[in-house]
Amino acid sequence: MLTPSNVILFELVWLSTQFAKKDHVVGWGAFPLVNRNFEVNEGLFKVPLMIGEVNRSVNKFKDIE
Predict the structure, then answer these.
(1) How far apart, in whole angstroms, are the C-alpha atoms of residue 17 and residue 57?
(2) Is residue 1 part of a domain?
């Protein structure tokens, strides 16, 4: 299995409370650090947030879009 490189992979986590005793992932997203010319991405961006646990079968950013 390949591990992501030049990508920030993040998870949105619902933290435990008195009602939910366990933390769980409710969403995730990935942001490429470099563009197709291997220049660092700069500026403001909107990143799609996928529902649920991280899906390791997605191996291309265009699959998320």
Answers:
(1) 31
(2) no
In a domain, 44, yes or no: yes
SS (H, E, C) the chain: CCCCCCEEEEEEEECCCCCCCCCEEEEEEEEECECCCCCECCCCCCCCCEECCCCCCCCCHHHHC
Range of the domain at 43: 7-64
Give the total number of structural domains in the chain: 1
Give 14-61 pLDDT, tens digit per residue: 898 888 789 888 998 888 888 888 888 888 888 888 888 877 777 666
Output the pLDDT for position 63. Answer: 65
